[in-house]
Amino acid sequence: MTGSAELTVDLGRLSPEVLELRARILRAGLDPSTAHFSGDDDPLAIHALARLGTRVVGAGSLLPEPLDGVPGYRVRGMAVEQAYRGRGVGTSILLRLLQVVHEATGTQEESATSRSTSVTPVWCHARVAARSLYERYGFEVVGEVFVIEGIGPHVLMVQRRS
Q: Taking the model in full, what pTM does it have?
């Protein structure tokens, strides 16, 4: 990163900072209200905000959401400021959210790159450009590339933890 500022990832409820970052990065050119996703206000939803010092540099969310009828967790709204991509911000957010899953399911990580510790699927609709981030942590592509209108190409990725 830059200087001596430390990267922190804080968890909490949906905040204006999360919505603003999502609107600017994930929904650029669209109505900012599109950055408020279904499930964001669920009492079990967790929103991560990454800061470098006091500067907000990334965000991501974790929602309890079934996959094909199986209870699971959905990672969504992962956004990192352009200037901080490729510097571990997205990885830090994802690992923090996966830690929440481990805690919620009563499993423990074997290491920072743990890939399989529970039967609860964790899934996301990942932008094609972000696919490698998820693959590093055991997510696999399921199905074909699909396009979310106005947003771009995505793939369904699932971390089937067993």
A: 0.88
